[in-house]
Design a protein that fits this description.
Layout lengths: L1 H10 L17 H8 L6 H22 L5 E5 L9 H15 L3 E4 L5 H11 L4 E6 L13 E5 L2 H10 L1 E6 L4 H15 L8 E4 L1 H16 L6 H5 L1 E4 L2 H16 L16
Parallel strand pairs: 1-2, 1-5, 2-3, 3-4, 5-6, 6-7
Helix pairs in contact: 4-5, 4-10
């Protein structure tokens, strides 16, 4: 553990560590990520980034290994607690927790907070995969455990890897990115045909129409790809569809039964 911490400190001279963090802090990650994505850099810089990404991946794997069967809830960070979609997400979180799932979100405010809050309302387990951003993204107060990531692709991997189903409420670019990544992984057989639910019929109807009138009509997707998306306004229907598939088709097993090892950050 000490060696890993020393390696992380060497690769993170600003002291913003990817090992378990006691508090929120943006550090200098944004400028470094921008540089990383601006094409080829020096060999030393890219080696350092590769090592830091490896540390971030391992931190995520070890932190989330024992969280139990999850359902990931996607949605906007911009809805407040009096908004109908916040209320709906809170209901979804509570129902998922009652069904025996750990509620996983991006860990921030809005829909994410609501789903985590719903889980805590009924004594369920609630976790967040947070991301360092200049605005909007601070861990909400309803998390039993949260992990902070610098890289979106690492965070999205964790949101997918540990979940049996995915429920998306209205959101922006990030929510669309997450929805279509899951749909692509299912379509290409990279993950099983886990449920993908869109909540808010009115909000998602234009997207449904576009998929049907363009993608399906031009045969860029198959009918099965289109029909895989369940669109509903009912939290009860959404959670029932998740439990029917996850519990009956895939079961609620969760990896090997092994002891936690402190030196593996568990």
């Amino acid at each position: 553990m000490k060696d890993l911490v020393e390696l992380d400190q060497f690769l993170n001279p600003d002291k913003t560590s990817v090992v378990p963090l006691p508090r929120w802090g943006a550090g200098q990650g944004a400028a470094e990520e921008a540089r990383f994505l601006q094409g080829p850099q020096s060999r030393g810089f890219e080696l350092g980034k590769a090592l830091r990404i490896f540390c971030e991946l391992m931190h995520g794997f070890r932190s989330l290994h024992f969280v139990g069967p999850c359902v990931t809830v996607f949605g906007s960070a911009r809805f407040h607690e009096d908004h109908r979609y916040y209320v709906l997400a809170r209901d979804v979180g509570a129902r998922l927790a009652k069904a025996g799932f750990t509620v996983m979100t991006g860990g921030g405010p809005g829909v994410m907070e609501a789903a985590n809050r719903g889980a805590k309302d009924v004594g369920g387990y609630s976790i967040g995969c947070n991301i360092e951003l200049p605005e909007e993204q601070r861990p909400n107060p309803y998390l039993d455990r949260w992990v902070t990531f610098r890289h979106f692709f690492v965070r999205k991997l964790m949101l997918v890897k540990y979940s049996y189903a995915f429920i998306a409420l209205p959101g922006g670019f990030g929510t669309l990115d997450e929805i279509f990544e899951v749909a692509t992984l299912v379509q290409t057989g990279k993950i099983k045909q886990f449920p993908l639910v869109l909540m808010g019929r009115e909000f998602w109807r234009p997207l449904q129409d576009f998929l049907h009138a363009r993608f399906l009509a031009e045969r860029t997707i198959d009918a099965a790809d289109y029909e895989r998306l369940l669109v509903t306004d009912s939290a009860e229907e959404a959670v029932r569809s998740v439990t029917d598939v996850a519990m009956n088709q895939f079961g609620l097993t969760y990896g090997p039964r092994v002891k936690r090892r402190w030196f593996l950050w568990e």
